[in-house]
Amino acid sequence: MVPNIFHYIYFYQDNQQEFPLPHYLCLNSARILNDPDKIYFYSNRLPFGYYWDKISSFVEFIKIEPPESVFGNKLYHIAHKSDILRLQLLKEIGGIYLDMDVICKKSFNPLLKYDFVMGKQGKWRKMGLCNGVILTQKDSEFLKIWFDEFKNFRSKGRDRHWAEMSVRKPYVLSKKYPNLIHVEPFDSFHYPLYYSFDIKKIFVKNLDFPNAYCHHYWDGASYSKYLKNITEDEIINKDTTYNVIARKFL
User: Could you say which architecture CATH assigns to the domain 5-249?
Assistant: First the structure.
C-alpha cells in the first residue's frame, strides 16, 4: 500500500514572511482527514509565525536546498527544482505528495491500495496528469520510468517545455503503461482549473464538488486575489466553497 506519509515542499526565494493561514489550512486538513503516520515539510528555511507554531508539533521540518540539476541538466526555475525533489523523495520513501496550495476535502484512504496515483488536469483538453498531487509506493515502477525521462529535461523556465516532464510526460506514460498507474478523473484533485473564470467557483461561490478528494487552488491564479489577506473571520462568516471546507480546520 501507499504509506500514509505526507510530503510538502516550499522554497523561500526572498525575504521570508510569516507562515500564512492558507498554508496552515492545507497541512491541517491533511492531518485531520488522513491521520498521517508522518508529515514532512521540506524547505531551505525554518518557517515562523503564529500559524507555524500551531502546526509545527505535527510536522517534521527538514532543511534542504533545492536541487540545481537532474541528470546533468540545469534546473532554472524553482518550480522545476521542486518537481525533481518530490520525485526523489517519493522514490526513496513513498507516500503522498501535495503542493502547498492543495486543501483536502476527504481522506485519501481509498486510493492507498494502488501502486501509483495521479489525477487528470483538465476536463476536455488532454493537458496531462498534474504532479501537484501524487500518491505512490516506495520505488514504484511507474515513478522509476517517469524519473528516468528527466534525462531529456530541457526547460529553461516559463517556456514551451514548462510542463513537458511534470504534466504531459506522465500522461503519455500512463497510456503506455496503464497497468502501473491509477488515474483519477479531472474532478478528484485539480478542479476547478487555474483560469480566472474557473477558479472563482471555489472563492466566490459556494458549490459542492462531490468527487473531490481535495482542491488544488493554483496559488499563481488565486493567492493575490483571494487568499493573501484572508482572515479567520472571513472564513467563518462568508460561505464559499473554499471557506466552507477551510473552516473545519481552523
Answer: Alpha-Beta Complex (3.90)
